[in-house]
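INFO  loader      accepted 1 record
INFO  loader      residues=252
INFO  predictor   begin
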Amino acid sequence: MGNEQDDLASNFDLFIRDFITKGVDFKMAITTTDGRNGLNGLMIGDTNQLTSTAAAANEAQFISNFQNWIKVGTNGSGTEMGLYGAKSFFERYQSWARPNAYLAVVYVSDEEDFSAGAVADYTAALRAIKANAGYIKPYSIVTTELVGNQWETIGTRYIEHTNNMNGVIADIHRPFYDTLSDFGGSILNLLDTFPLSSTPIDNQIRITLNGQELTSGWTYDPVNRVIRFDPAAIPDAGSIVIAYYRSCVGGI
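INFO  predictor   done
INFO  writer      dumping tokens
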């Protein structure tokens, strides 16, 4: 993973550039796939230096900090546990994730995940971080096809976990320049959407803005279960009401 860490660091500016120029309020943190006791989910570096505020104060230092801290090295456990690492991180730092912000979790590994337990358990743990799981999106940069490197294995568990939450998958052999550009654009696109907590019956949705019904300026994406507003019609989160009928589980 040494080469991949170098590529991720050198192309980070491409990923974060639009976030900075568009004034997006963000915060970042780094952990590893090392699942050994005391190291599982441990934060690497200082998350306070990986925020939009830090970038505005000293952009060059912000980028340098990320580039240095993302190079976590290759001397950790050979049994990679990325799913367990992410779960452990949010258990260690329970107040880190802001309740009203989107959460993008990016997994990077050239080997299969060997976290104990079923993938569904880690998906459920990630969903439980927010009241509305639609605000969480996993991204996986993993081996999707073997190309002859004897140490690599296909990341089937990362792929399953990411697909469980309609996330985005990229092959680790694809140029990081392209992958990070695509991932950055995908995350930015979340900012004009409002996720629904459940699937509406027959896609029947009613939206009001300050008490007035909106009949245009928005569309419903049933695949990702989000309301997407036109660029010129994005309302403040606290000013809209989205009403819909949803299916109930169980009997009366």
